[in-house]
Structures are given as C-alpha cells and as structure tokens.
Specification:
The chain is mostly beta strands and about 325 residues long. Helices cover about 10% and strands about 45% of the residues. Strand 8 and strand 9 form a beta hairpin.
C-alpha cells in the first residue's frame, strides 16, 4: 500500500490515494473508543473536527467495497491540503463505523480522484497548470503523485486511451494478454474494459487469462489454502517471471517479470505469491490494474482531456 501525507483542518494524516473509488473518508473521534485505541496503537491518527470544520446539513454516507469491507458516518466540510495545494470547504466523510477489515488498515483514510462527483482533485483543478495528475509508484521505495504537470522524463513516451463515459477512470481493454511478447487469448471479447486503480495492490484479470499466464511459470498452481496462484521461489528470492503485456485502449502496457511476484506465500520463503490473480470470468467485471501495474508504468490521469496515459519506466 502507498500512503501519502494529507492535512485536514491542520491535522496531519497518511492517506491511501485511491483512483478506483469515490469517497474521501477518515478515521475519526466518532468511532468506538476501542477501534480508536487500536488504530493509534498501530501508528494511526484520528481526525477530530476543529474550528475550520462545518457540519454538512446532517448528511450521512456509507460505502461498501468489492471485498465487502466498508465504512459509514457523517459529513463535514474542512480545509484539505495535499502538497502545496489546499481546497477549502472540501466535503470530508467522518467515519463512525468501519468493518473489521479496516481495523488493521495502515492509513488514516482514503482520498480518491474519480470523475463521478466533486472531489478534492476537481476542486483543486483551478490551482493547477493542467487538469491532470500523475502516479509514479516504485517497487519497495517511496514514489510520488504529481498535480498539474507531467514529469519531462516521460512526456514524449506516453500512450493514451480515452476513458469511458462511466464516471470512473475506465478504459477499453479487450483481446487477451501477451506473455513473453506472444498474444494469448481465450477468444472472449472482454468488453468490460479495465480500471487503473491505485487503491488495489494486485493485478486482477479474468481467471481464464490468469491461468494462461501461469501456464508459462514452472510449477505454478492455484492454492486453495492461500486462495491464490503460487509458485516456487528460488534460493536467491523471487523468481524472474515471464513479462506480461496487458491492453490499455489500443496500446499494450508491459510489466516486467521482476514486478509480478507480490510476496512470499509461506514463512520458509520457498513459495511465492503471484502479483497477478484472478477475477470471475463474468463479462460484467472490468480488469483491475492495481499497484503491480503502477510499479512498472508511469501513469497520467488526464481529466481535462478525458484520457488515461502510461509510459513504461526505465
């Protein structure tokens, strides 16, 4: 998980900037005391509405995620600052209930940038040089988000895809995958597209495509115990897997094999947990391009031109 410093009403927090959701919510003093204590003991911080916070006419909120985790509470407006950019009177969802899955959450909340409603990013756009932001996330080291500009290292290498008119960062992604540069497909059309999602850790594709990829990984198998695809690690650590290319509009984004192992699957370090995992083969489910994608690719979320762009990192 990648966490970024965010200030709300002058109070400092670490947030998961999530492009795949639509809520800015924060752990607050409205949560049960036991949950507040647990969050603080894990290094987290609790938001207490201060003098700059105003109740938003009794509004309430509730959200449930794909994994059935969720949260709910009330709404205030407050000043929200990221980097050098402050949005005044930004709607902030104050959590008074969180599901058990969030009790061990490393961050203090989620801040997102979809296109479905007035978010912090949309309210901040008047202060930006261009109506876009970028994600430059790294493997096992700090990354960065850029607001209103594109790093010149990548500006001439970016391939763009138009985002669908669904209110989300949602692009076309049909035709299968490429393994070691070779097109591999099941013949299905995969019309649901893909969502580039900084709030998801793994790369999630339909089970049928995932199975085709792991056919190229020696001794890879689906483990019912782990609930995931696993394969042998090497004595030196993570194996170098075959490169995977995935569709983004009419282009292909390549993920080198060194990024495709997520973690060790056992304490002995002999089994590895794949960074590519499966979704239902339902035609209604989009591919989810999580942090595995962003480790290998610089990404541009171009709100002004309604497009998503990427460039493979050096």
């Amino acid at each position: 998980m990648y966490l970024s410093p965010v200030s709300i009403g002058g109070q400092k927090f670490n947030f998961d900037l999530d492009t795949g959701s639509s809520d800015l919510w924060v752990f607050s003093n409205k949560l049960p005391a036991s949950i507040q204590r647990k969050h603080k003991s894990n290094g987290g911080k609790i938001y207490t509405p201060g003098p700059t916070a105003k109740n938003a006419n009794g509004l309430t909120w509730s959200i449930t995620y794909v994994d059935n985790s969720g949260a709910s509470g009330t709404v205030v407006t407050d000043n929200v600052k990221i980097g050098g950019i402050t949005v005044k009177k930004q709607a902030v969802e104050v959590a008074s209930r969180i599901s058990a899955m969030f009790e061990d959450f490393e961050g203090d909340g989620l801040l997102v940038s979809p296109t479905k409603q007035q978010t912090w990013f949309e309210n901040a756009m008047s202060q930006l040089q261009s109506k876009l932001f970028t994600a430059d996330l790294n493997q096992q080291s700090a990354g960065s988000y850029g607001w209103g500009y594109i790093n010149s290292i990548y500006s001439k290498k970016i391939a763009y895809a138009k985002i669908r008119n669904t209110g989300w960062w949602h692009v076309d992604a049909g035709g299968g995958i490429r393994v070691n540069g070779k097109l591999t497909t099941t013949g299905a059309s995969y019309t649901a597209g893909a969502v580039p999602d900084t709030g998801t850790t793994l790369l999630l594709l339909p089970n049928s495509l995932v199975k085709l990829y792991y056919a190229s990984v020696p001794k890879a198998q689906y483990s019912s115990e782990a609930g995931a695809w696993v394969y042998p690690c090497t004595p030196q650590g993570f194996p170098n897997l075959p490169p995977l290319s995935i569709p983004v509009g009419k282009s292909w984004a390549t993920i080198p094999g060194k990024y495709l192992t997520y973690a060790y699957a056992n304490s002995a370090g002999t089994s590895c947990f794949g960074g590519l995992q499966g979704l239902s083969d339902s035609s209604d489910l989009p591919f989810i391009y999580g942090d595995i994608f962003f480790k290998a690719n610089f990404a541009v979320f171009d709100y002004g031109n309604k497009r998503f762009g990427f460039a493979q990192k050096r």
